[in-house]
């Protein structure tokens, strides 16, 4: 695969990811907010009439809101009909895939200016309803039928990784602590508090006190969701939307002097059910999608300065940092404990707090990763800016790894 | 696709104990689910009966299949050997 024309991000916007503040809002309102921020972020101004096509990642507005036909609805409410509007559903990778397709639509010459984004309004359902809906992204017959929940699938991957490499839950805890720290610096994040800060206030309410994060994370205030994963190993249920404006290389200077180019893209699929995969300690689709993206971009894993990786669960970040080639297999956990993935580490992973702290409105996540990398490479990430970030990567996973999309970005 | 007979003996490749269940399993949690590699080479997923504590399971533990009837349905489950 190749990109036969240059494609750049020229604008981006996202809502804060949260549940409570969006309680009274529907997905169309969230998407419009993100789209207007994207429009206003274009340095030289942007007329929505310039948009030629819209791609929307959305996992399940059908189940969450009783609303399908999502892309046309978003085009209508953003005010860009009659452009071609298409919805992409690839579970949690919906808008990462949408970004790849939007880039291909421009690279192919079909369009010069495309809007791409994602949206999910999850909190209309109870936790039980959300658990059932997310489980639809696994094999309904052979996995969900056997009792697997979505956290359960990643918990099973953790058990296999622990057994094969001697990695541990304490290493997962280091990832949660780091991502909460990063989230505390990001005004768009769902959780903007350090783990210790949460430990103090939850402890006070329950007449308990904790000497450090691990003592809190081992306590009854951090219950198991799916052994060995506890509450703080899991991303929250969030509502939100994210939108980018992409333009063909020839048109970029109309919009900005500071574009961020999509240098490479990759995508792969894998067996849906974990039991049909050769390895349970690595996501093959991550390895294949990133290899493709690196090759097109002409970079290697160690060229990446900043990466947003798919940490729906802490074990997912550990595995991603290995499968993307940042660390050798089996060393992702130790690298996290040693701070090598922190904001000032050798490769900054999830500086925005990741899915863990920023939140994970499923369909909005992939485009929100692209938004973060856009901000990082322009030096506009504020308090969670990674100093001198030149090359960035976004890695979006569908469910337990049957879909993975990757983009490599550069100035 | 064709049907083939396999033995019910195998080892756990990966497992979890689900504490926050699907709506269809409310009342049964915590319950254990495992990806099992049968000695014939095939891998399948099923409940591990009589286990509710993750610390009592391990990757590599031997299990044997047991079919459990629930009304009209028959579920493939496992038991630790």
How are the SSEs placed, and which strands pair?
The complex is a heterodimer of chains A (411) and B (81).
Chain A lengths: L6 E8 L12 H15 L11 E5 L3 H5 L4 H9 L5 E5 L5 H14 L5 E8 L6 H9 L4 H5 L5 H16 L3 H15 L11 H11 L7 H5 L6 E4 L1 E2 L9 E9 L3 H4 L4 E10 L14 H14 L8 E3 L5 H10 L8 H6 L10 E2 L4 H5 L6 H13 L13 E8 L4 E8 L1
Parallel strand pairs in A: 2-3, 2-4, 9-10, 9-11
Antiparallel strand pairs in A: 1-7, 1-8, 4-7, 5-6, 8-12, 11-12
Helix pairs in contact in A: 1-3, 4-16, 8-13
Chain B lengths: L8 E10 L12 E8 L4 E6 L13 E9 L2 E8 L1
Report on this structure.
The complex is a heterodimer of chains A (411) and B (81). Chain A is of the alpha/beta class. Chain A has a single domain, classed as Peroxisomal Thiolase, Chain A, domain 1 (3-Layer(aba) Sandwich). Helix content of chain A is 38%, strand content 18%. Chain A is built from 16 helices and twelve strands. In chain A, the strands form two sheets. A ten-stranded mixed sheet of chain A has the order 3-2-4-7-1-8-12-11-9-10, with helices on both faces. In chain A, a hairpin with a 4-residue loop joins strand 11 and strand 12. In chain A, helix 1 (27-41) packs across helix 3 and helix 8 crosses helix 13. Chain A starts with 6 loop residues before the first strand and ends with a strand. Chain B is an all-beta fold and 81 residues long. Chain B has one domain (9-80): OB fold (Dihydrolipoamide Acetyltransferase, E2P) (Beta Barrel). Chain B is built from no helices and five strands. Chain B has strands at residues 9-18, 31-38, 43-48, 62-70, 73-80. In chain B, strands 1-2-3-5-4 form a five-stranded mixed β-barrel. Chain B is globular, with a radius of gyration of 13 Å. The N and C termini of chain B lie far apart (31 Å). The mean pLDDT of chain B is 94. The A-B interface holds A 127-129, 131-132, 135, 142-149, 151-153, 155-157, 159-160, 162-164, 223-229, 273-276, 280 and B 13-23, 25-26, 30-31, 33-36, 43-47, 53-54, 57-60, 75-76. Strand 5 (224-227) of chain A pairs antiparallel with strand 1 (9-18) of chain B.
């Amino acid at each position: 695969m190749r990109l036969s024309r240059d494609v750049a991000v020229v604008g981006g916007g996202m809502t804060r990811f949260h549940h409570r503040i969006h309680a009274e809002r529907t997905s169309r309102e969230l998407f419009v907010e993100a789209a207007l921020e994207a429009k206003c972020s274009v340095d030289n101004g942007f007329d929505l009439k310039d948009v030629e096509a819209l791609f929307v990642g959305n996992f399940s507005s059908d189940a969450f809101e009783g609303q399908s036909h999502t892309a046309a609805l978003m085009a209508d409410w953003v005010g860009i009909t009659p452009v071609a509007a298409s919805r992409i559903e690839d579970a949690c990778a919906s808008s990462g895939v949408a970004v790849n397709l939007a880039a291909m639509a421009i690279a192919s010459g079909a369009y010069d200016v495309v809007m791409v984004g994602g949206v999910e309004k999850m909190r209309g359902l109870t936790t039980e309803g959300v658990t059932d809906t997310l489980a639809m992204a696994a094999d309904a017959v052979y996995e969900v039928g056997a009792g697997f929940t979505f956290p359960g699938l990643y918990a099973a991957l953790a058990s296999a990784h622990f057994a094969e490499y001697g990695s541990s839950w304490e290493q997962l805890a280091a990832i949660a602590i780091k991502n909460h720290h990063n989230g505390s610096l990001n005004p768009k994040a769902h959780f903007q508090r350090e783990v210790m800060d949460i430990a103090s206030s939850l402890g006070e309410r329950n007449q308990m006190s904790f000497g450090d994060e691990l003592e809190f994370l081992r306590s009854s205030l951090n219950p198991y969701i799916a052994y060995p994963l506890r509450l703080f190993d899991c991303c929250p249920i969030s509502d939100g939307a994210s939108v980018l404006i992409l333009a063909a290389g020839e048109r970029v200077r109309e919009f900005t002097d500071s574009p961020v180019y999509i240098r490479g893209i990759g995508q792969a699929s894998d067996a849906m059910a974990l039991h049909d995969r050769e390895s349970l300690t690595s996501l093959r689709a991550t390895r294949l999608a990133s290899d493709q993206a690196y090759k097109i971009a002409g970079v290697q894993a160690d060229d990446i300065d900043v990466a947003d990786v798919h940490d729906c669960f802490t074990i997912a970040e550990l595995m991603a940092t290995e499968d993307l080639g940042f660390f050798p297999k089996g060393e992702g956990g130790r690298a996290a404990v040693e701070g090598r993935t922190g904001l000032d580490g050798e490769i900054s992973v999830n500086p925005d707090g990741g899915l863990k702290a920023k939140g994970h409105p499923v369909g909005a996540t992939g485009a929100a990763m692209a938004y973060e990398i856009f901000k990082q490479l322009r030096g506009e990430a504020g308090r969670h800016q990674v100093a001198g970030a030149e090359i960035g990567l976004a890695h979006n996973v569908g469910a337990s790894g049957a879909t993975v999309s990757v983009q490599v970005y550069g100035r | 696709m064709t049907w083939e007979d396999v033995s019910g003996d195998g080892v756990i490749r990966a497992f979890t104990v689900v504490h926050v269940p699907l709506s269809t399993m409310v009342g049964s949690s915590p319950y254990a689910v495992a990806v099992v590699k049968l000695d014939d080479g095939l891998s399948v997923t099923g409940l591990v009966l009589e286990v509710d504590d993750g610390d009592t399971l391990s990757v590599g533990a031997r299990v044997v299949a047991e079919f459990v009837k629930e009304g009209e349905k028959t579920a493939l489950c496992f038991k630790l050997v």
